[in-house]
Specification:
The complex is a heterodimer. Chain A has helices spanning 7-18, 21-47, 53-66, 69-83, 92-118, 121-129, 134-164, 176-187, 190-222. Chain A is mostly helical. Classes of the chains: A mainly alpha, B alpha/beta. The structure holds adenosine-5'-triphosphate and magnesium ion.
Chain lengths: 223, 245
């Protein structure tokens, strides 16, 4: 039974863990890009109340907000290939990216929708009055204004997503959490290993929080 | 050029327009006056299809739309025949003055960007905003914003510009500069329908004045007829009160 903290071990572990940070960030970035595409689509469908699709989106949101991310990842990874043979060769990384993006898009869609609804109605009317179509108005005027409002909360979701990628180790993705787990198991220095990985997450989150702050400051200056 | 037939509009059970008929010819300046809540804004908004009429026919510049059978394509075509100047300006908040005016040219009319920006610049210079081209709406005074709004409506290539109380949100000091721009437009034979409480403007500039009340056109005629010799009792009462101020 060890009682003292092996600080040297922690420092030795950092460079090793950092090698796998690209896997973690890869999942987060791909997941976020996909989630953005999904959530903007869902938000627009919900704002325009497109029949059937809007109801399906509401169901989608309800499900992905109403069940744990871990359960969703398992359902995706173990369930999809069974029912859709194209997913037969689905690797754990891709499954995690899809799962993360679906899960977060459910939340992001709602904050994008709120941002769109928050744009003054007169902006849409002004677009229509000079002959723009609704979708031109969306693209040129409404979405750019909404994105400014939505950016801070979307950044929060991105930061949340970085942390959530740690669940991917349960599917067998070798990212920083999985590596620290393996290290812990072989060295029996559990506390040190998890402390090391915690510091890495923390540093990454602090970094992106800083970016978020700068981005917000830039956006507030824009007009 | 503009022909409105039996136009009605209900909000739920509230009948706001109860059968409006009128025509406007090319180059004509029509001013609509009337008490608050009588449907003047609603009428203008219907012409631009910002509000869907309950029934009736609207024809502008050869595009005829019957509200009962209106298709999306028809509505888009009709909208392009008119442009709107809003009481609260409604400039695009994320665009500069120049971009506000150029936006329609680029997006709707597919004009190459440099050309669109040049034309937008010309129009802004015309309305006296040469040194405000790159300002955002939030950096402009009410009067300046409204002049950008007018410039934006001018380049929309519509047959008619609809003005809904363009000066009533303005501080008194900015009213004249906006009216001056509108007078210049009137001199250029730009077809205009103007809802306003500026009786002096109506008298000076209008070819025809329409008095509306309770969802109907009560009376119409030259400014002289309406202001000096109104036939209808309601018109008389309204004009008497309005001219006092
Ligand atoms: N979107 C709406 N929903 C419900 N009722 C409306 C709506 N817009 C207007 N109304 C009603 O229609 C009536 C006429 O309104 P409108 O704005 O056309 O009057 P107005 O003649 O322009 O008045 P003002 O001089 O005050 O601008 C009012 O009773 C108003 O409450
Ligand atoms: Mg009004």
């Amino acid at each position: 039974m060890q009682t003292s903290l092996d600080i040297q071990y922690i420092f030795e572990l950092f460079p090793y863990l950092l090698k796998y940070l690209s896997v973690t960030m890869g999942m987060a970035i791909w997941g976020f890009v996909l989630a953005l595409i999904f959530s903007v689509t869902i938000a627009i469908i919900r704002v325009f109340k497109i029949t059937v699709l809007a109801q399906l989106c509401a169901l989608f949101i309800s499900f992905f907000r109403g069940t744990p991310l871990l359960v969703q990842l398992f359902l995706l990874y173990y369930g999809l290939p069974r029912f859709f043979p194209i997913f037969e060769g689905l690797d754990a990384f891709t499954a995690a990216v899809i799962g993360l993006s679906l899960h977060f898009s459910a939340y992001m869609a709602e904050s994008i929708r709120a941002a769109i609804m928050g744009v003054d109605k007169s902006q849409m009317e002004a677009c229509l009055s000079i002959g723009m179509t609704r979708s031109q108005a969306m693209r040129r005027i409404i979405l750019p204004q909404a994105s400014r409002v939505a950016t801070p909360s979307l950044m929060n979701y991105f930061i949340d997503m970085i942390k959530s990628t740690s669940l991917a180790f349960t599917l067998g993705v070798t990212e920083i959490m999985a590596v620290s787990q393996m290290e812990a198991a072989s060295s029996f220095k559990f506390f040190e290993s998890f402390l090391a990985v915690a510091f890495i997450y923390w540093a990454v989150v602090v970094f992106f929080t800083r970016i978020q702050y700068l981005l917000e400051r830039y956006l507030n200056r824009a007009y | 050029m503009i022909k409105v037939t039996n136009l009605t509009k209900k909000f739920a059970e509230n009948a706001v327009l109860k059968g409006i008929d009128f025509e406007v010819s090319l180059g004509e300046i029509v001013v609509i006056i009337g008490p608050s809540g009588t449907g003047k804004s609603t009428l203008l908004r219907c012409l631009n299809y910002l509000e869907t009429p309950t029934s009736g026919c609207i024809e502008i510049g050869g595009i005829k739309v019957d509200s009962r059978s209106a298709t999306r394509t028809q509505i888009n075509k009709l909208r392009k025949q008119s442009s709107f100047v809003f009481q609260n300006y409604s400039l695009f908040a994320n665009k500069t003055a120049l971009q506000n005016v150029a936006e329609g040219l680029i997006t709707v009319w597919k004009m190459p960007k440099p050309q669109a920006l040049q034309l937008a610049k010309d129009k802004l210079i015309q309305v006296g905003l040469r040194d405000k081209l790159d300002q955002y709406p939030s950096q402009l005074s009410g009067g300046q914003q409204q002049r950008v709004g007018i410039a934006r409506a001018m380049v929309a290539k519509g047959e008619v510009i609809l003005f809904d109380e363009p000066t009533s949100a303005l501080d008194p000091e900015w009213v004249d500069e906006v009216l001056a721009v509108m007078k210049t437009l009137a001199k250029q034979q730009q077809t205009m329908i103007v809802v306003t409480h500026e009786m002096q403007f109506a008298r000076e500039v209008a070819d025809r004045v329409i008095f509306m009340e309770g969802g109907y056109i009560v009376e119409q005629g030259t400014p002289q007829q309406i202001f000096e010799n109104p036939q209808h009792k309601r018109t008389q009462a309204f004009v008497k009160r309005a001219l006092k101020y």
